[in-house]
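Components:
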Amino acid sequence: MLTYDLRQADGPLYTYLYQCIKSDIIAGKLQPGEKLPSKRTFANNQGVSTITIQNAYDQLVSEGYVETQPKRGYFVADVDVVAGKGKRADINYEIHIPQEDEEEILYDLSKNEINPENFPFSIWAKVSRAVISEQKEALMKKAPTGGVRELREAIASHLYSFRGMMVDPNQIVIGAGTEYLYGIIIQLLGLEKIYSIENPGYRKLEKIYRQKGVKCKFASMDEKGILVSELERVKTDVAHICPNHHFPTGITMPASRRYEILAWANEKQGRYIIEDDYDSEFRMSGKPLPPLFSIDGCEKVIYMNTFSKSLTPTIRISYMVLPVHLANRFYETMSFYACTVSNFEQYTLARFIKEGYFEKHINRMRLYYKRQRRNIIKTIEDSWLGKVSTIIENDSGLHFLLKLENKKANEEFQAYLKKHKIKVNALSDYQWGQGVADEYVYIVNYSPLGTGAMSFR
Amino acid sequence: MLTYDLRQADGPLYTYLYQCIKSDIIAGKLQPGEKLPSKRTFANNQGVSTITIQNAYDQLVSEGYVETQPKRGYFVADVDVVAGKGKRADINYEIHIPQEDEEEILYDLSKNEINPENFPFSIWAKVSRAVISEQKEALMKKAPTGGVRELREAIASHLYSFRGMMVDPNQIVIGAGTEYLYGIIIQLLGLEKIYSIENPGYRKLEKIYRQKGVKCKFASMDEKGILVSELERVKTDVAHICPNHHFPTGITMPASRRYEILAWANEKQGRYIIEDDYDSEFRMSGKPLPPLFSIDGCEKVIYMNTFSKSLTPTIRISYMVLPVHLANRFYETMSFYACTVSNFEQYTLARFIKEGYFEKHINRMRLYYKRQRRNIIKTIEDSWLGKVSTIIENDSGLHFLLKLENKKANEEFQAYLKKHKIKVNALSDYQWGQGVADEYVYIVNYSPLGTGAMSFR
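Structure:
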């Protein structure tokens, strides 16, 4: 008769019994087909109640270690332990996390991180608290695939006042970052399309498209932006461009080129333009050009923007505005998807925009960046660096270009960066293959710096 | 000489002048190549400062409507208005949003929405406030692709205490919903794989896989879960299963079948199992089976879980645990992706778990659901419905099955649903093609109901 020493039980007796029997089954001490004692006999033998035995048996049955046969009792099941026992010798169990940078960096001007001083924490907290206390029902309600109505309305009205765009909130699709939205575009347009990105340009885009399973080519630019001849050369279906403030060159595509690109898109069905308007909020002076989306009369332009630059990249909220026929295709084919942004943050951002905090924040940041940019440019110009370099900028966005005049100056600059632990990317880092990108040109993302933090001495 | 009536200007004069000239260029009144007046002459003529003219010209130049020729002056550019003028007649501008349901519904038992009474709003708000006031730096810092360290550690320790799983936090990948994570899995394993889902099962999965560009087949189940013979029949590479509490049948896969499935995966390189453990927190009694992930010694199982059931689906936080070699592949090939969940919510959830609120919440909800389930089952059993139906459940999860005894009973039940505006899905809604799913079986997601809200009279 099966007997276990219940004094060793640490917890409910039935759990302990279950554990003991299971171990014996796995170890083979109890063989497949073997009959287990009846509940009453076993209970008497162990000096416990039949309920305890019942519970232990139930658990074993539910896990498949034991089978019941009606009116016959409990039997050990045939647990065919064919797989997964122990670790295989040929598997490597070490995880290798790529290290961002080996060297210590004091000033990282290779990317735009928001200085914590500049995020409106207290207002964000206040708005978020109000949302939690006043919109409980809405917070628990599944959002439509494209995002909650309030946020889409707030974005539509922001686009109207900031960019002169007239869009139906239903054309807006909210997603957890532009990278996610590119995936949605690929699903909308099909995996067989050829995407082109600007060269030089934001090279990560190429990785993203390739990783998501579509072809991605590079199309060269001239001083007006991407070339239609290049789009044709690489057989582009979908051109992903930043016509309003190209990264990294800072080029604004003039109207003539805009119409050329639209004409290119119109020549063939299935051609589209993704207009990436990532930093339009930070044009420092003058009136920005209307986006391509607004001058497109033929539903060829998908407009994309994000709150990464205007708020922080660590809140993952981006959006795109689809031409009507693509919005319809989106609702027809993808309504089953859940929106990827939390309701809590969608409602918070919607209020933040509606109550005017977003506009105030942008205005404040624009002034802040303008001052910061002026200080840094002046500091550079007044330093040794100013004597051997030129600054290329168009009073827009959160970066400018610094062009060293010759090889010697470039070497001095490199040594300076190393000595002061500064990380800056070169324009050529954004260039694929041999191209027009000048030598010795660097991209200075100045937003991570405080005002006047560096002296360039 | 170009002359405009500046009395009509509503705003800065330069903006108005810019507008006028631009309109004339677009309308063709100013022809390509035409020379514009010099700044001084134009300023004298209009009675404004040269700065005003300069600003207007600069804007026109930056937009490409005007070109400068060194030492010669300003000329109208060749704005080749080839595209995008006006709306094309053959485009449909109406957006059709699919309507969820035409009929009014009082009780929607077809899905699990969280009753707003049950979400721990005040604690969530408190924790989130603490995060905002104490972790500003961290909130602004780009999270690793897999998610912020604190949350991954919190999840690892939750998995250890709730599921007995030993995982390295670096094996955990956090994403904005399981649907997003399936996309990551597809990118990890390749687009050419064949995915299988359980039949009957969560049919939305099939749409998701298909939409993301991979083949998705149905593999039938018996009373122990998915059949290995079926996986082989449809040439599965990746089996997506819910072995711990199958939706909708409620089946828990016994140990014997688990080992069979693992053996199937081990037979061939490139085969994997996605273990969807979506509601493991709500096993009401007994000890749950260890997940497949834990008994897999050969790196074949990707474990997935979500906070949708345990907190709310409207906070989009899910995670997967990758076998080590896939974690390495993830870091090698996808480290450039940004994590799709906001830092604010990642840090909030991390604290919520670490400070014990999550465990308390789950315990409270488990009791709540247990009581609610008992009440509803009793109400059904005591009513006319109890006389013509059987309840099938295994004391787990947030749904049970209701089986009507015959066609007549089924018709009565249908009429009752209609009269009381109740929406319930049938088991056959989750069945693809002809299959084993019984007739007249319904899935009751009881969580949207309050305790004892329906009388079944």
